[in-house]
Amino acid sequence: MESPLLCETKGQIRILRLNRPDRLNAVSLPMYEALEVELEDIATDEQIRAVVVTGMGRGFCVGADLKAHHGDEPTIEERHEYIDTSQRVFRAFQTLPQPIVAAVNGHAIGAGIELALSCDFVIVSEDAKLRIPEVTLGTFIGGGTAYTLRRRVGYARAAELILLGRFFKATEALSWGLANQVEPAGKVLPAALDLAISLAKNAPIAMRLAKRLLDRAESIGPDEALRLESEALFACMTSEDWVEGLKAFAEKREPTYRGI
Fold first, then answer.
1. In 3-state terms, what secondary structure has residue 45?
2. Active site residues
3. Topology of domain 204-251, CATH
4. Half-sphere exposure of 147 (CA within 13 A, CB side)
5. Taking the model in full, what pTM does it have?
């Protein structure tokens, strides 16, 4: 059986491709398990500076594989394993030290949207169909969507998308702040790779600290934010990358950061 996840490294960029094109990359437990292993590896790989996740074929991810769920009745243990594994994977995306770009090359529904919302940047194909349909199917959202979606689009829009479960367009996602860019289908992955390359040029220590603070920003007050920023700034000022950044600025050249 072909792997449900294909991984490729280009320079300092790791590309993750959801690989169930015959099912429009509907998620499955093996896919979640493969993602969990890969994300654990990326998190400790200092050579990887940015990540791109996309889908094989004409879809990004259309959510849970409902045909698979319609088969033999899963046991209580199997249901818990599926739920717990999927939630760990979403949180691993959200807390990965490196920035992640979602290249939404086609339809993104349910878990597909939830995966994109767990990334730092979202680039969507202009013809993609987008939807969060769980409540219309008698199931429930996952991936921290009640938090990740509301953080991007606000309560009123998040309630509309979750409670009505209607389809929406890429242009709407862009206007609401859910997406960062909308591109023609064939340009989504190239645009995501260009963005990842730009991100990979930045100082990795500063990027990691910024991601960590952004993740915590809504759960802390201004005093705590100032304290954490001061600690992060001191950590950067005592790094070799700080010296390199100042030197490159003085010499009017691109810096070469080493993450130390």
1. coil
2. 114, 134
3. Lyase 2-enoyl-coa Hydratase; Chain  A, domain 2 (1.10.12)
4. 13
5. 0.94
